[in-house]
Amino acid sequence: MTSTLTEPKAAKAAKSSKPVIVLRNIRKTYMMGHVAVEVLRGISMTIDPGDFAAIMGASGSGKSTTMHIIGCLDVPSRGYYWLDGIDVRSLTDEDLSKIRNRKIGFVFQSFNLIPRLSVLANVELPLTYQGVKKQERRERAVAALSATGMSHRLIHMPTELSGGEQQRVAVARAVVTNPSILLADEPTGNLPSHQSAEVMNIFSQLNAEGRTVILVTHEEDIAEHAKRIIRIQDGMVVRDTRSLPVDALPPRLDASSKKTASRPISARLADGSSPPHGLLLNTDTPSESISRDSK
Description:
This protein has about 300 residues and is an alpha/beta fold. It has nine helices and twelve strands.
């Protein structure tokens, strides 16, 4: 069986100069009893398609709140947020739900896998919500797991996996809907260093294929995988540093991956070429044999 994860639809817009994310003077206030706590105090940033940005800050700085607003998991108290040119304030709850399911992929520190479902069933779940038919759902989930190096664990349960393997499954679940934007909140926080490096290389590969990747971390060595580091302190952006252009390959993409990505990303996207890393996948696992709980 041959399974293909195609280039994210919105990734083709990377050749355009139109930003995919624009935040302007975002403020967020929470009520703690009768006390108003201002977590974000005027966050502004612009993210272009195909960028790889790390948002850094100490605990309580507002970096995760910023990520939740970007991911449409929360709404700002004040300010403006445009996603692909659309004012998010004008969207209904149903619209926001569709965006979260189709346009944005999420990866969290705690993996958030469902313990009673197999690896394959966990990755199929977002496609189930989209109403994708069983055969296509199966093929796309297998392709996503193959791309993250987990095709040998299809019928295993989350409790049978290491932390690094669980995070690889979480990444596969995040990309199976073919989102153009990938958001990761402390994705290596629960992993030892060698597993962190493996997971970060997957993010680098996904960015090299044209996906916009935004990563929240407090670890300097993890942030150095990105092309740009945005530092937040006390709810404000205090520094925004770019190390590489948007259309460059990620700085820590491993050597074997770089060999298959010799052409600039912008050129590959412009001519409609298939992304180079792990997206055209062959698997010898017949769908009929994947039966533990995905029937």
